[in-house]
Amino acid sequence: MPLFKNRQSYTAVQVRKKDIPGGLWMKCKGCAEIIFKQEVEQNLHVCPKCGHHFRMPRRERISMLAEPDSFHEYDAGMTSVDSLQFTGTASYEDKLETNIAKTGEQEAVTCGEARVGNHEVGLGVMDFAFLGASMGSVVGEKATRMFERSTQQGRPILMICTSGGARMYEGMLSLMQMAKTSAALERHAEAGLAYIPVLTHPTTAGVMASFASLGDVILAEPEALIGFAGPRVIKETTQQDLPEGFQRAEFLLDHGLIDRVVPRPELKSTLVQLLDYFDR
């Protein structure tokens, strides 16, 4: 005799999830909150909850800083070549083609002239999305040409910096760009013209050891990693524990390497204020 005479049978009901388009949400690396991607983009790629600064595409940076329709690009068609015939797991030419297709840009830096506030300036913007903004012959040449044109035209220079280091595919030709860009900036300084670099995350190695650290006033975005060698390499070399926040913008501000940490929404107004001061 069954224990329960009127036992009912149940069947599982599958509830279909709503079709939600992908790419609408993202996780903040600062506060770990899930945030609406479009809201972050509209907020200059800054988390609206914690202020974490995400990387910003170069064309959006140019639009953020330059007055409408005032930016005119220099040397847009200049591209790198595999002069050393680099061989490895992937050829240098393949790497370049992949990054050109990914970014829609020919190189890791875009240089030109623009109006920022009421000031005509030379403007360069590096982009980490292109081969880690590594500095090769073309990056160095485009930056140097912009520096030299600005000197000839009597313009101050603004340079948005980011880089993972020298471009290993070009060997010594890459390292030579450190001296070339630095020499061009020395001539710019001798002409009595202002140069303001803005260090974004990350700014390291050869770029940091050359034009990124030669400004009259050096600005940085919050929490940007700034230095020559990375923290892991330094720790392994010195066999010492590094201070908390070592090589972050705020630490370097406290120790005098940079002059001010500026949140991205305040960057343009800060640059205009500095340009006003230098123009007196």
TrEMBL record:
One GO molecular-function entry: ATP binding
Organism: Kiritimatiella glycovorans
Compartmental location: Cytoplasm
Entry protein name: Acetyl-coenzyme A carboxylase carboxyl transferase subunit beta
Reaction(s) catalysed by this chain's protein: N(6)-carboxybiotinyl-L-lysyl-[protein] + acetyl-CoA = N(6)-biotinyl-L-lysyl-[protein] + malonyl-CoA
Oligomer and partners: Acetyl-CoA carboxylase is a heterohexamer composed of biotin carboxyl carrier protein (AccB), biotin carboxylase (AccC) and two subunits each of ACCase subunit alpha (AccA) and ACCase subunit beta (AccD).
Any GO CC annotation of this UniProt entry: acetyl-CoA carboxylase complex
Boundaries of every CoA carboxyltransferase N-terminal domain copy: 24-280
